[in-house]
Automatic annotation (TrEMBL):
Record-stated family: Belongs to the major facilitator superfamily. EmrB family.
Organism, as annotated: Heyndrickxia ginsengihumi
Stated name of the protein: MFS transporter
Membrane topology type: Multi-pass membrane protein
Lineage, broadest ranks: Bacteria, Bacillati, Bacillota, Bacilli, Bacillales
Any single Gene Ontology cellular-component annotation: plasma membrane
Length: 507
């Protein structure tokens, strides 16, 4: 009989706090970008690199985390990741110019990228399958709550202090976690004789980096821009070569054979679809609130805060429910709520009340709290233990890429539909004009038409997100509850191979 492993709660607590502040930092800066533009005298397209660069480094680094987790101990990896994050945070807080600030953000991102897959892998290996839901619920709390409170905290700080305070408040926390980790993280790992394939690293960097940059630039530059479609094509070709390279290597950097496990493959597809649809709320609502309704960044953040708090409360509860009833029922209920609330968001007007928006957003977050973690955990549960690192790295990479695709796709729909609505509304308004209106009346009419057209464009993008979510809703009906050992029966029809996999896993 195999002795049950003692759960390393001390290690998990340190990793959770580290992951929380690194994720918080990801959304903390968005509200402060206008202040940074003014203070450091840079343009909108330049300052945007603080977000784009952060995302690119994450997208490039995350595929390597499976190799890093296999090669190095949790202690060593976490200290490097937290060390890089702390150095980046300190440098950003005192940056004299934009170039230094951007470099500091990229250093932060290189540490942050390691943190989430590392935490997820420790949770998967520390808890038995029947208790993973509760553990992953806590992980979900970090993953969802930290980025959700970022805009509210950022809005308040920027309104009362300098944007540098965003880094100054994180610095002592990051430094304290780093010092605690030196003394408290004591895990031991046997030396593993694997090496990083440099060609895989190059292909992965160009592949994922090209796709992320191309799709994230499409919203601003347009799909017909050579830089946009050029980087997407180069990224796609490099990614195909990267996948081929991984399939011929004995020790791949990222194991694509995990897709032979059907529930993991299904969960990946559902996650991609959900991420693309989910960005409607995260991206379009702030545009509506701040650009159309003139609501301040702080009040926009406060509007989203009840949803973030509810999602944070629900995440551990969802984890416990997952252990009891599985992912399917939770995902069906969660997606149904998300689809209905997204549809109501496609009916926005220039007079939709603040209270209505809070209720709708909070309900949408409530629905989403039942989707992400259960679907992801159910897929990871089917993988044998030795493939956990590859599963978490793959999931995190797909989230980055599908998030960029979702943003670009929905922004382009919003932009195109806004132009169409502007033309239609202008034609209708002109046909109703009588006499010779004053220039002021014409200017006022144009402003009203412009705002109305943007709202209709946002509504159309939300409606498309409803269609995307419906695809995920259909797919979740095919989900089955699995464990790693049951998965061998599902994915390996050859009994001999099944025994061999089971034997190697037990060893």
């Amino acid at each position: 009989m195999v002795e049950e492993k003692k759960v390393p709660y001390g290690i998990i607590t340190i990793l959770l706090i580290g992951a929380f502040i690194s994720l918080l930092n990801e959304t903390l800066l968005n509200v402060a970008l206008p202040s940074i533009m003014k203070d450091l005298n840079v343009s909108t397209s330049t300052v945007q690199w603080l977000s784009t660069g952060y995302m690119l480094v994450n997208g490039i680094m995350i595929p390597t985390t499976a190799f890093l987790i296999e090669k190095f101990s949790v202690r060593r990896l976490f200290l490097v990741a937290m060390g890089l994050f702390t150095i980046g945070t300190i440098t950003a807080g005192v940056a004299p110019n934009f170039s230094t600030l951007l470099l500091a953000r990229l250093i932060q991102a290189s540490g942050s990228a390691i943190m989430m897959p590392l935490l997820m892998n420790v949770l998967l290996t520390s808890f038995p399958v029947e208790k993973r839901g509760g553990a992953m619920g806590i992980f979900g709390l970090v993953m969802i709550f930290a980025p959700a409170i970022g805009p509210t905290l950022s809005g308040w700080l920027v309104e009362h202090y300098s944007w540098r305070m965003l880094f100054h408040i994180v610095t002592p926390i990051a430094a304290l976690i780093f010092i605690l980790a030196i003394f408290l993280l004591k895990d031991h790992k046997e030396k593993v004789n694997i090496r990083l394939d440099l060609l895989s690293l190059v292909l992965s960097t160009i592949g994922f980096g090209g796709l992320l940059y191309g799709f994230s630039s499409a919203g601003n530059k347009g799909w017909d821009n050579p830089i946009v479609y050029g980087t997407i094509i180069v990224g796609a070709v490099s990614l195909i070569l990267f996948i081929w390279r991984q399939l011929v290597l004995d020790q791949p950097m990222l194991e694509f054979r995990i897709y032979k496990y059907p529930m993991f493959a299904l969960s990946s597809v559902i996650m991609i679809v959900i991420m693309v649809g989910m960005f409607a709320g995260m991206l379009l609502l702030p545009i509506y609130l701040q650009n159309i309704r003139g609501i301040t960044p702080l009040h926009s953040g406060l509007l989203m805060l009840p949803g973030a708090i509810l999602m944070g409360i629900m995440s551990p509860i969802t984890g416990i429910l997952f252990d009891k009833i599985g992912a399917k029922i939770l995902a069906i209920i969660g997606l149904a709520i998300t689809i209905v609330t997204s549809y109501f968001f496609s009916q926005l007007s220039l007079t939709t009340t603040y209270t209505e928006l809070i209720i709708l957003y909070t309900l949408r977050m409530f629905g989403m709290s039942m989707i992400m973690m259960p679907v992801m955990t159910n897929g990871l549960n089917q993988l044998p233990g030795k493939l956990n690192a590859h599963g978490t790295a793959m999931n995190n990479t797909l989230q980055q890429v599908s998030g960029a695709i979702g943003s670009a796709f929905l922004v382009s729909i919003m932009s195109n539909r806004t132009e169409t609505h502007a033309k239609d509304l202008t034609e209708k308004a002109m046909s109703k004009l009588t006499g010779h209106p004053s220039p002021d009346a014409i200017a006022q009419m144009k402003q009203h038409i412009g705002m109305k057209a943007v709202v209709e464009g946002i509504n159309d993008a939300f409606l498309v997100s409803v269609g995307i979510m419906l695809i995920a809703f259909i797919l979740v009906f095919f989900m089955k509850r699995v464990t790693p050992y049951e998965s061998q029966k599902i994915s390996n029809t050859n009994e001999k191979e099944s025994k061999k996999v089971l034997k190697s896993e037990l060893e």
